[in-house]
Every structure is written in structure tokens, then in C-alpha cells.
Amino acid sequence: MKLVSIIIPLYNSENYISETIDSCINQGNCIKEIIIIDDHSTDNSWNIVKLYKEKYPSLIKLEKNIGKGGNQARNYGFSISKGQYIQWLDADDILAPDKIENQLRLMEETQGDGILVSCGWIKFENNISEGIYKKQLIDKDYKVPVNWLADSWEGKGMGQTSIWLTHRKLIENAGQWNENLLINQDGEFFCRVIINASKIIFCKDSFIYYRTNIHSSVSKNAGYEYAKSKLESYKLYEIVLFSKNSEYLKKALARNYFSFIYENYPGYSDLNKLSKLYIRDLGINKIESSIGGKKFRLLSKLLGFENAIRFKNCFNYKNKLL
What we know:
By secondary structure, the chain is α/β, with parallel strands linked by helices. It has helices at 17-25, 45-55, 70-80, 99-110, 146-156, 168-174, 185-196, 224-237, 239-243, 247-264, 269-281, 294-303, 305-321, and strands at residues 3-10, 31-38, 60-64, 85-88, 94-95, 115-124, 165-167, 199-211.
């Protein structure tokens, strides 16, 4: 059986890291190394992991990040890893006990260094027993991996960093995590991984638990620079189109830009204008009817996309005043 490297970037997660590490230690029948890269935490995270390292010296590696940022920590962790298979894991998320074992079995049964194995993910706040698995349309096998991207961009489901078990060579072909992005780093990274994959296999018997409502989460940050970085990540998706001439992909990618406008309008007018330019460059004239809920889509057909957003924002504002 081949070695699996579990790589965890760590920053100020003293309340969660023990549960995360325990979930790694308690993985089933697999040979593993747990690599934890501390991104200069200012709480007690380092000391907590240090105690684990002292108890499991041959299993756990603990290093300080040589740079700064979660992506840099992931890249550093990968550079010192030895596993043929890679499991990325955030410091506040949890692996189901047989997550890696089940995926590894599928990986080795199928063989090939281009195989990518996914699984389901379950949201929870305090206790994993609270979480309920909700199957998504993308929770299936893909003989053509790029179709997973198109389906996800079309709103048929979302991936999560930890769902994947990835062959090392696949990551080497895809390249490092982008250290310049502030948000949607996992979307951009796995876009490149998926492009290089030969097949995606969905493991119905594996799960990960994704902790929500973490105040320090990057996804909760807002502001111009984060919006700009998200738009840049969408633009980087277009590398798919260099090798795949697909109208479905173009429409799916355009949906990201329409969603960006939906989320940010009327703020960041320069970024919204850029989004419209990117949509035009893709040759897509209209796709906004698939954005938002049923009521918004109906308004969009009647009033136009931007007018519908104005109406929605005005309605939400008035409700806050009531």
C-alpha cells in the first residue's frame, strides 16, 4: 500500500485542530504522514500540535511556514511530503474515519496517475452528528473530467478542498497553489488539477465534514481586494478554454461572471464592467436567467438582469428598515 500525505495549513485554530488531527490519526487501513504547516499562529495552535508530535513522532511533521499565507503553507507542505497520494485538509475540517481508505481502494483498483477521486461533504457547526449529507448533481463519476468543472460552474454543485484524493503526479503536472489569490484559491487550483486528470471517480462511501460559521474564515472576508481576487480566479479558469473548445464550458464560465455581478452590483463598478467585458469576449450574450432564485429569474426576464438586481437590493434594504 502506498503512502498518503495529509497536508494541513494551520493558523489560529486552537479550538479545532485537535479534532482535525484525531480524524487523521483514526483513518482506517492506510499508511500516512500528517504534515502540519503553522502559518505563524498567534494563539496556542503550535503548542497543541507539538504535543501530538511528541506523542506520534513518526506520524506527524510540524513546521513553521517559510513564507506567509495558506497557499504558501500548502506549497511548502507538498514540497516536504513523500506520499504518492495527497490529501489536502483545512485545520478546522474533519475526515470521516474511512475517508482515505475507501478512496485509496478505488484509486488503486483503477490505477493510473491521472485518476482523481472525490467524495461527498457535510456541513456542520459544532458537532458532526448535526450534519446531514445532501447529494449534489456533481456527486458522480466523470469520464471527461472537465465536465465536472462545467457542471459545477452551471450551479449543479460545489466542491470542497478536502473531498479529493489526488495522485502526486497529477499535482506536479497541475502546478502549485496560486499564492497571489486571496479567495477561491481551491477553485483555481483544482481547476488545473481536473484539467490534467484522466478520470474522476466519486466514492459514495467517503465523506468529509466542513465546519461552518468560523469567524476567521477567508470566505467571510469582504472588500474590494477580495472581490478583485475572486474575479481574477475566474479569469484564470479560462485556461480550460485554451485546450477545450466547448460552448457548454463557455456558458458555464460566463455564469461565474454573471454571478459576480449579481453578488456585487452596484458596488465595485470597475470590476462589474470588467466582468461584462469578459462575458462579451466569451461570445455569450445572455445566460443570466440561471442566476438567483425563481423570483429573481422571473424578474430578470421581465426587467432585465441589472434592473432585477436593483429591485432586489431595494427590496432587501426596505425590509431591513422595517
